[in-house]
Amino acid sequence: MNKKGVIPVKITVYGAEQKCASCIHLPSAIETKEWLEAAVSRKFPDYPLEFIYCDIEQPQTEEEKDFSARILEEEYFYPLVVLEGEVIAEGDPRLPVIYKHIEQKHQIS
């Protein structure tokens, strides 16, 4: 919780240094995290946001280990975008879809 008593929106982007074969023409996962952070922060300037990048080769938490394993088992493509434990985008994320999920989950606009 931040000082205003509002719990930040937690968005985790999963990926690896090496791009997946089908995503070679797209930004890397870390670049995806950076542009998502910039775009979402502009869209919701007064709302607390927390962006996390998880390297699928070095997950830290149990949730990160679970999603990383599922990516490595090819259940998901990366970059994988997860909003508070819910997959909201994979491969080539679209901002309108991400905005919609944030607005619905947190009842903000």
Characteristics of this structure?
109 residues; single chain
Short structural description:
The protein is 35% helix and 21% strand. It is of the alpha+beta class and 109 residues long.
Q: What's the story with the biggest beta sheet?
A: 4 strands, mixed
Main β-sheet, spatial strand arrangement:
2-1-3-4
How would the global form be characterised?
Answer: globular
Distance between the termini: 20 Å
Tell how many strands the DSSP assignment holds.
4
Residue stretches low in confidence (pLDDT < 50, at least 5 long) are none
Radius of gyration: 14 Å
Task: Summarize the amount of helix as a percent range.
Answer: 25-40%
Overall SS class: alpha+beta
Mean of the pLDDT scores? Answer: 88
Topology order in helix (H) and strand (E) letters: EHEHEEH
Proportion of beta-strand residues: 15-25%
Total DSSP helices: 3
Question: How would you describe this protein?
Answer:
By secondary structure, the chain is an alpha+beta fold. The chain contains three helices and four strands. It has helices at residues 29-43, 62-72, 95-106; strands at residues 9-15, 49-55, 80-83, 86-90. A four-stranded mixed beta sheet has the order 2-1-3-4, with helices on both faces. Helix 1 (29-43) links the parallel strand 1 and strand 2.
